[in-house]
Design brief:
The chain is of the alpha+beta class. The protein contains 22 helices and 20 strands. The strands form 4 sheets. A 5-stranded antiparallel beta sheet has the order 2-1-5-4-3. It has a 5-stranded antiparallel beta sheet with strand order 7-6-10-9-8. Helix 1 runs antiparallel to helix 6, helix 4 (about 105-135) runs antiparallel to helix 5 and helix 4 crosses helix 6 (about 155-240). The protein starts with 6 loop residues before the first helix and ends with a helix.
Length: about 800
């Protein structure tokens, strides 16, 4: 079986067997080492650690728990110290015992551990009693505890823990023996496997070496045969008429024959110093570069190249490239200059023929008597949707609508009988569509057979145009007659009315029949005839605005109409199509508006109120003379259209004014008073009104401002207020004076009342009368003083 393998395959097999043996030995060894490692881990985790835990338990019982009662009695430790040491020992014992129980226990060990657990529980109860005695410091109870619990025999718990420790030793020895057996078994197996691998590898090596030696002998014989073959090959190459050369993977020449030297004009030595790119046309290299080392497995590459001779001439070659296993290329080159010239002549002749055929209008085709298509132009392919390859398998019948077969057959018979025929038929496209064509045909001899040469012109557009023209005429007539705007068609040569729609008859008052018997001159006043002629002389190649003219209606009334005209050709005659709009009412309204504007301008110019109209951006649009005077006087600025208030409005007042403006542009009216300090120190007052400007749709378009000088009124109000303040001051003074005088009069009057009572008792009392006279004189002085003060205040 190994004989069928090659030498390299056998070497790979040897390497594979060796590697597999080593890997097998390694895996087997790792498995046994893993088992030994597991034994070692078990020995440490389940035996060594357990031994230490049991040793700790035994030590605590022996050193800290069992002797503690006697140590207290012997006064080595106090009751408190002993209690603490016992508690600590109990914690260590419980912890180590718990850790021991969670390790792996053999069945024997598990049974012994359960026995130890029972004894430990009894011992724990005993020493709980000891802890209670120690905590109470009861000496008598301690002595009783010693007599009752302690004896010369070893404690049962110590005995059981010792048995567990001895068991650990026995189990550890057993684990050690298992590991020893595994080591001995593994060592023997390793030796056997190594010996077996060496036997197989050595045997296979000897066999492979024998095969390689035989292969070398065969290679030497092959080299001899190849050398003889190469000599024959060299002889064939040198004698070949085609140019042959070898190139390496970089394109460098490695060998050339004599024909290659003659073809290029180089010597053998010169070519061996060149790269193949050195003899290829540089222009072709730019568009079609060489690809060195191109992989061509088991096949040859045939293509054309342009080479350059040593003298610079360029010629065409056909090359056949074959790749060898050592990445060298064998190239056979043949000069095809003469063949290329012949092909170019044939191509030019065909191109000229195709150019003439493809330049023909519509479709062109050449068919024999059986209907087989021989030649055709590209228009036939474009019209039918068939490719050139598809058309080669078709006949004319395949491209004609079935319902037109008889027409085409009759036309073809007429061509061969009469020498010419013309017919309309529908050409069927690849997708089933049918296109009408005007087809013509004539007989011709082509390639020694009687053929029919035919042409076709697509008449679908003509048919569509005719249909569209009819439809357009119908639409035009309908549009003209049903148009709501008055329309009139007038002949330009004699100004006669050719057509008028219903809207025009309603406007002018004539019937349609009456208008068709008239000229447009009869619809105009006689004095407008020259103007009418001038309008008709005006060219209206497009829609032309001819302005407003006067027209006389049938009832004799005159109206004004706006005229838009367009000169067209209608039934071979120059015609003016006129669109007429009645603007009589609009003109009247414009005249009334002009009068209204004139009146308004008069009012604005003569009024004492300043008016200004602003747009939404507060740009001035319209203002009167009074507004101009106001701006010049207060802002030292000559206003013009487009001015913005922000350009000259006082900054300190602008925020408040903008608040007013926003309110106005929301539809509100604003009124307020404002003062301006003049250079002479006087103050000028204005009454300002702001209100929105809206259209019929209540849309706000801007703002109107009016200012009225109210300085005189404000001054009068100020004077009136001043007078009122003075009168009020006088009234207050009079009140004060009256109060004072009344106070002064009240004193002598009271005295007079008292004296009068006294005089009633004794009318002859002179002293009383004297007192009365004095008080009367004092009242008289007071009244005179009041009169003097009143005169002074009034003045």
């Amino acid at each position: 079986m190994l004989i069928k393998f090659s030498a390299s395959a056998k070497l790979y097999l040897l390497i594979f067997i060796t590697a597999a043996s080593l890997i097998g030995l390694g895996l087997y060894g790792i498995n046994d080492l893993k088992e030994m490692n597991e034994n070692t881990r078990t020995l440490y985790a389940d035996r060594v650690l357990c031994m230490r835990q049991l040793a700790n338990i035994r030590y605590e019982y022996i050193a800290e728990v069992l002797p503690m009662a006697r140590n207290v009695k012997d006064q080595i430790f106090t009751f408190s110290e002993a209690g603490k040491r016992v508690q600590k020992a109990q914690q260590i014992i419980n912890t180590n015992w718990h850790d021991y129980n969670v390790t792996y226990l053999t069945p024997e060990e598990e049974l012994l551990a359960k026995q130890t657990e029972a004894i430990k529980n009894q011992t724990d109860k005993t020493y709980q009693n000891l802890e209670s005695i120690l905590s109470k410091k009861d000496t008598l109870a301690l002595s009783s505890f010693i007599r009752k619990e302690f004896s010369t025999e070893p404690a049962p718990i110590i005995v059981k823990v010792t048995q567990l420790m001895e068991l650990q030793t026995r189990v550890s020895k057993q684990v050690y023996n298992n590991s020893k057996q595994i080591f001995q078994s593994t060592s023997k197996k390793f030796i056997l496997l190594i010996l077996l691998s060496l036997v197989i590898a050595i045997s296979l090596s000897f066999y492979i070496i024998k095969n390689i030696k035989k292969l070398l002998d065969d290679r030497l014989k092959s080299n001899k045969i190849i050398k003889e073959s190469e000599e024959k090959y060299r002889s064939l190459i040198e004698q070949a008429s085609d140019a042959i050369y070898l190139v390496d993977h970089k394109g460098n020449f490695t060998d050339v024959n004599e024909s290659m030297c003659k073809m290029t004009g180089y010597t053998n030595e010169e070519l061996l110093l060149l790269n193949v790119e050195d003899i290829v046309d540089p222009n072709q290299l730019k568009t079609d570069p060489l690809i060195h080392g191109y992989h061509l497995p088991d096949r040859s590459l045939v293509r054309e190249r342009r080479l350059v001779r040593k003298d610079g001439t360029i010629f065409d070659v056909e090359i056949n490239v074959k790749q060898f296993n050592d990445n060298k290329m064998l190239v056979i080159a043949r000069d095809i200059t003469d063949r290329k010239r012949a092909e170019e002549l044939i191509l030019k002749e065909k191109q000229l023929s195709d150019a003439i055929i493809n330049s023909l209008p519509g479709i062109f085709y050449l068919r024999n008597e059986k209907g087989k298509l021989l030649r055709w132009n590209q228009s036939l392919e474009m019209v039918t949707g068939y490719t050139a390859q598809e058309i080669e398998g078709l006949t004319v019948r395949d491209m004609i609508a079935p319902e037109d077969f008889e027409i085409m057959n009759a036309a073809a018979e007429k061509v061969f009988n009469d020498g010419y025929a013309m017919a309309e038929a529908r050409v069927k496209t690849k997708d089933g569509a049918k296109i009408p064509f005007l087809l013509t045909g004539s007989p011709i001899m082509f390639e020694n057979q009687l053929c029919l040469i035919g042409t076709g012109i697509d008449i679908l557009s003509r048919i569509k145009a005719e249909a569209e023209l009819r439809l357009s005429e119908q639409k035009y007539k309908l549009l003209f007659e049903s148009n709501p705007s008055p329309m009139l068609m007038i002949a330009k040569d004699d100004m006669s009315i050719i057509a008028a729609n219903e809207a025009l008859t309603v406007l002018y008052g004539y019937t349609g029949e009456e208008l068709l018997q008239m000229t447009v001159k009869e619809l105009r006043p006689a004095e407008d005839f020259e103007e009418q002629l001038e309008i008709f002389r005006t060219e209206a190649s497009g829609s032309t605005d001819l302005g407003v003219i006067r027209v006389i209606r049938k009832d004799g009334s005159t109206i004004f109409v706006h005229l838009n005209a367009h000169d067209i050709m209608f039934e071979g005659r120059a015609v003016r199509l006129a669109l007429i709009t009645d603007v009589t009412e609009r003109l009247k309204a414009e005249e009334a508006l002009k009068k209204s504007e004139a009146n308004l301008q008069t009012i604005l110019k003569t009024t004492d109120t300043a008016y200004a109209l602003f747009d939404l951006e507060l740009k001035a649009q319209v203002f009167n003379q009074k507004a101009i005077e106001f701006v010049k006087h207060e802002y030292y600025h000559l206003p013009k259209k487009g001015d913005g208030l922000v350009d000259f409005f006082p900054l300190e007042r602008f925020p408040q004014f903008m608040n007013f403006t926003r309110a106005v542009l929301k539809g509100n009216n604003i009124n307020y008073e404002i003062d301006y300090l003049q250079a002479d120190g006087l103050v000028t007052w204005y009454y300002v009104s702001l209100f929105p400007i809206t259209n019929d749709s209540k849309e706000i378009l801007g703002m109107m401002m009016s200012l009225y000088d109210i300085t005189e009124r404000k001054n009068a109000e100020h004077d009136l207020k001043s007078a009122y303040d003075r009168i009020q001051s006088h009234i207050n003074s009079i009140k004060d004076m009256a109060w004072k005088q009344s106070h002064l009069i009240r004193s002598p009057l009271a005295n007079l009342k008292g004296l009068a009572e006294m005089l009633k008792e004794d009318p002859s009392d002179a002293d009383v009368l004297n007192f009365i006279q004095n008080e009367l004189d004092r009242m008289d002085d007071i009244i005179i003083e009041m009169a003097d003060v009143s005169d002074y205040d009034t003045n």
